[in-house]
Amino acid sequence: MFMLDVPKYCKFDQVNQVIGIDLLSQSLLPAIVELAEDRHWRVRIAIIEYIPLLASQLGVGFFDDKLGALCMQWLQDKVYSIRDAAANNLKRLAEEFGRDWAMEHIIPQVLEMATSPHYLYRMTILHSISLLAPVLGSEITCSKLLPVVVNASNDRVANIKFNVAKVLQSFVPIVDKSVVETMIRPCLVELSEDPDVDVRYFATQGLKSISH
Length: 212
Prior knowledge:
By secondary structure, the chain is mostly helical. It folds into two domains: 1-97, Leucine-rich Repeat Variant (Alpha Horseshoe); 112-212, Leucine-rich Repeat Variant, CATH 1.25.10. The chain is 82% helix and 0% strand. The chain contains 13 helices and no strands. It has helices at residues 2-9, 12-19, 21-36, 41-58, 60-73, 80-97, 99-105, 107-113, 119-136, 138-152, 158-171, 177-191, 197-211. α4 (41-58) runs antiparallel to α5 (60-73), α11 (158-171) runs antiparallel to α12 (177-191) and α11 (158-171) packs parallel to α13 (197-211). The radius of gyration is 19 Å and the shape is globular. 33% of the residues are buried. Keywords: Repeat.
């Protein structure tokens, strides 16, 4: 239990000023990697929540070399809370390092996971996309994210399809009205006729948000 409390009291920025980035990274990295795979999910989530702060202190170069793979690995954790925290972590990292970095280091891997055979991981990717879209902006959302979401509307799993409807609704304020009419509305209309009641409900909610 002691390890759970460590991140609450770590002042990475203050430690960094005293001992420097090189020594800090050499000292922390083995512990971070070990805790990132701890069997107790609360330990893993505590580490995830401090990754953006750690990344901001150690810099983009260190992050890309050492921590990037861990952040993608957490998206496929067996525990929902870890996957959710991992999605939020990607958003915070995109805010920290910027759109260009996200396009190079996050988006390709996220989009590749969109076709995971495990539907829970596909749901996590949809959630990640919905969080990243406001950070990345209209152009990237339209060119990279929206096509993947629209394609997911053909998923065989109803939970995926109603999450597609929710993500599409979240895109409406981000993209141009022409994109809403040519890509988002037709997809929602099709989902509103789905055999599953939940899919129909969320698709209808999405269509109502467009009409308002």
